[in-house]
Design brief:
heterodimer; A: alpha/beta; Rossmann fold; 2 domains; 7-stranded parallel beta sheet; 5-stranded parallel beta sheet; 9 helices; 18 strands; B: alpha/beta; two-stranded antiparallel ribbon; 8 helices; 29% helix; globular
Chain lengths: 328, 264
């Protein structure tokens, strides 16, 4: 049972640690098999961090040529290590880079892969990994198996599984593997942090517990400012429907729905969003949905826990005022 | 420049889906299919390169014959010709077995390709596997999420965006290569009806008779992964409490809700 530990500069990304937690749980169901991790061009500190989070063994792929991420060279190096250690199961975080690597690694190992699993289980009879993923726009939940080939591979989006507690009393083995790359075919020549014109200095829409989102019904960018104020007061963030993004009121990174982000906040407040099926797919797993809309028959109102019928321009400013009063 | 665009004739999300009870896979036969929406970014990206450097853009798809209209609309956008790999033995394929057919079709029918372009993912399956798997089958390098590129000799200078890190990266990639195109990054050109009307004559259909792939390496039989179960996704039922009245009254109730939810 192995996990890819993605590194960003000098730190492991959380998704790798989350997968270590899940891997431990699955390993127990398999009668206590070993949990391994692999880091490309990582340090012993990173490996120890992985051990504190559940790894029994961590392989650090060592090669100065691999210090900087490039897709095909990384994928080949990881595949080589897996060929040597032959895990039964290999899990990979479905970050943008992880998604880029996963299918190439699987193909190199002549095995299958399941993308973006939301649940992983062990079939007690066959000991197969059950790879469960939403498909067809989130309307169907498919259970996938890899009966013949090994490893069984699955990718999992960040935040799906909880990060296990850090236990500094855990011990494990750190192995440094020198891996050669055949011939470099991709080369990174520049990196630039994109200064996206975001609407506010607020957390990404997929990582907040409270999301206040706006749609076409807002009518203007001014309306969006009210939502930002409310989101800040509630300690949340703002999101947008496709229509609000198209209108230029919010960047694409804040779009919620099938063609944007699928989110699982504790509270989702939809303001002026009609609730097209593509939007609803993105919020199906929100714990509580409050919709504010003048149209009581808008689809979002049928899919809300609290359907507030009314004009947001009257309701939101008043709500902000009341919350401020409560807080002072 | 010879550019192959990988494209999927996808089951539209609005249609009633049919599941094959034996295999648990989505039935595509006899269902009207439309071209995956994100492939239009890939086609636009390829056509822009052709506009700049000349050459030919070839769309490639693996689908039952009901996938023909999807290819016709891409030809209407300006794709020069299309190849449809279509055979009953290809049905029920997972991404591994699909990429296998696509790569072997490229090797046989477009052996002198310079670039293979794919959409970032499909709207119905959203795996983003096919680009990397095709690169692996072809034995060529690849880069995902590309939105702009230029060509210098045998090198592709590819600019891409990683949304989750908020980072732009520029890669030099040895050609031939595979790239996937960042979804929503292009403004796809309109379908020209006059061109679409005659599109059928630019579509070549190849079956496994021509490709000669081993039946146990394609389709359902050749797929490393199998669908063991498919169920309608269930989501938490909603309370559907309606709150209406004067704004002050509504806000009072909302405050109560926020307290209940532990937000305030």
């Amino acid at each position: 049972m192995w996990v890819y530990l993605e590194r960003r500069e000098d730190k492991l990304k959380d998704v790798g640690l989350e997968l270590l937690g899940k891997a431990r749980e699955l390993a127990q169901k398999l009668g206590g098999v070993e949990v391994g991790g692999v880091i490309v061009a990582g340090t012993e500190d990173m490996a120890r961090e992985a051990i504190y989070h559940g790894a029994d063994k961590v392989v650090i792929i060592e090669n100065p040529e691999l210090k900087v991420y490039t897709p095909v060279e990384y994928a080949e190096a990881i595949a080589k290590v897996l060929q040597k250690y032959k895990p039964e199961i290999f899990l990979i975080g479905a970050t943008k880079r992880g998604r880029e690597l996963a299918a190439y690694i699987a193909n190199t190992l002549t095995t299958g892969i399941t993308a973006d699993c939301t649940a992983l289980e062990i079939d007690q009879k066959t000991r197969d990994l059950l790879q469960i993923r939403p498909t067809f726009g989130g309307t169907q939940l498919a259970t996938i198996r890899t009966p013949q080939r090994r490893p069984q591979m699955a990718s999992v989006r960040p935040g799906v599984f909880p990060k296990p507690p850090r236990d500094t009393s855990r011990t494990g083995q750190i192995i440094v593997e020198r891996v050669e790359i055949a011939r470099r075919r991709t080369r990174l020549i520049s990196v630039e942090k994109r200064l996206e014109k975001d609407v506010a200095d607020l957390p990404p829409v997929e990582s907040a517990d409270i999301v206040v989102a706006g749609g076409r019904g807002l009518g203007s960018a001014e309306g969006f400012k009210l939502l930002i104020e409310l989101a800040k007061l509630l300690g949340g963030t703002v999101g947008a429907s496709l229509m609000a993004v198209r209108a230029g009121w919010a960047p694409h990174t804040r779009q919620v729905g099938q063609t944007g982000k699928t989110i699982r906040p504790k509270l989702y407040i939809a303001v002026g969003i009609s609730g097209a099926i593509q939007h609803l797919m993105g919020i199906m797993e929100a714990k509580t949905i409050i919709a504010i809309n003048p149209d009581p028959h808008a689809p979002i109102m049928e899919n809300a826990d609290y359907a507030v019928v009314g004009d947001y321009k009257q309701i939101i400013p008043l709500l902000i005022e009341e919350i401020k009063k409560l807080k002072s | 420049m010879k550019i192959v665009v990988l494209t999927k004739a996808a089951v539209p999300l609005s249609s009633a889906i049919k599941i094959d009870p034996k295999t648990g896979t989505l039935v595509r036969e006899g269902v009207p299919l439309t071209s995956n929406v994100w492939d239009r970014d890939a086609v636009e990206f390829a056509l822009k390169l052709k506009d700049k450097y000349g050459g030919e853009v070839i769309a490639l798809s693996m689908a039952p014959p009901s996938g023909i209209p999807a290819l016709e609309s891409l030809i209407g956008m300006g794709v020069d010709r299309a190849i449809l790999a279509s055979d009953r033995v290809f049905a029920g394929a997972d991404t591994w077995a699909t990429a296998h057919v696509l790569a072997k079709t490229i090797e046989k029918y477009v052996p002198d390709y310079d670039l293979v372009v794919a959409g970032e993912e499909t709207i119905d399956s959203t795996t983003a596997h096919i680009g990397a798997q095709t690169a692996s089958w072809l034995g060529v390098p690849y880069v995902y999420y590309v939105y702009d590129a230029e060509i210098k000799g045998r090198t592709l200078i590819a600019r891409r965006f990683l949304e989750d890190e908020g980072v732009d990266e520029v890669y030099e990639v040895e050609m031939p290569a595979v790239v996937s195109v960042l979804k929503g990054s292009q403004v796809p050109r309109e379908v020209r009806l006059s061109r679409k009307l005659n599109a059928r004559e630019y579509i070549q259909i190849v079956s496994n008779k021509e490709l000669g792939l081993e039946p146990d390496r394609v389709g359902l039989r050749g797929s490393p992964t199998i669908v063991a179960g498919l169920a309608s996704a269930t989501y938490p039922p909603r309370k559907k409490v309606v709150i209406q009245g004067e704004p002050a009254e509504v806000v009072k109730k909302l405050i109560e809700v926020l307290k209940q939810e532990g937000v305030l």
